[in-house]
Amino acid sequence: MPITAPIAYINGPNLNLLGTREPEIYGSETLADVEAKVARLASKLGVAVSFFQSNSEGAICDHIHQLAAEGATQVVINAGAYTHTSVAIADALAGTGMRWIEVHISNVYAREAFRHHSTLSAGAAGVIVGVGTLGYELALRACVDAG
Is-above-0.90 flag for pTM? Predict the structure, then answer.
């Protein structure tokens, strides 16, 4: 079945600082660079993508609700620090019935212990960690393969 709704990318707090924030952990690419790479791949794969970033938990929840109301079926989410704390974002995703893939640029399991727990993983179709920004492209391919 062809994908008709855009595959929605959601980035959480501090991901707007990519390229300058701890480049030894997150690399030198900006969020705009990552979005451009994903958009190029999406074009090659014949699918549409949308992008959203917020430092606010409530804004992320509102955006998830809006996506569902607009007919979105798949989300790629890097919830940043909210990954480890936000039951609200996990509930918003679960409550919409959308399929989601969780992405992290760094290997969260090789970092501080509090980063080893995710509120999102249990309901995720997949989790991609530690492969840098390539994870965003891998997630797109997984969404396309799932249809």
Answer: yes
